[in-house]
Amino acid sequence: MSHAAPEKLTLAYLQVGPDTHGICRYGRYLAAEGRTRPELAILERSVSLRGPGFDDRRRLREMARELSRADLVHAQVSVWGDGSWGPGWRAPANLRTFRRHCSAHWSSPSTT
User: Fold this and answer.
1) Rounded Cα–Cα distance for residues 99 and 105 (Å)
2) Which of 5, 14, 33, 59 is 20 to 30 Å from 41 at the Cα level?
């Protein structure tokens, strides 16, 4: 009796911010580790959000649709100072834009 190989779990890593930012480096480490696991397929994208709000939201919509192919999206958020998701009020607006257009599952840390 033959068994079909189990499907790979597809994880997406979204690095938002400058390449030198700590959370982007950490995300790249996680994605690299995932690539060593035969049961995982890894998607990885990077974007820096500092332009006009409309341009940032357009890029986030495109990226969200592309990463919707994943079973799970891992994205880290820095809201301190200018933050990784954009300066000031743009950070929560950019995060909402991505979440609204990405149909993959999200996991959030507990706030309790």
Assistant:
1) 10
2) 59
| CB 18 within 8 Å of CB 48 | yes
Could you identify the residue written with the tokens 């995932």?
A: 34
What are the structural domain ranges in the chain?
Answer: 14-106
DSSP 52-106: -HHHHHHHHHHHHHHHTTSSEEEE----STT-TT-STTHHHHHHHHHHHH--SEE
Distances (CA, A) of 74 to 3, 27, 43, 59, 63: 31, 8, 10, 18, 13
What is the model's pTM? 0.80
Distance of CA 9 to the CA centre of its chain: 16
Q: What is the pLDDT of residues 45-62, one digit of tens each?
A: 988 887 777 899 999 999
> What pLDDT is recorded for position 110?
40
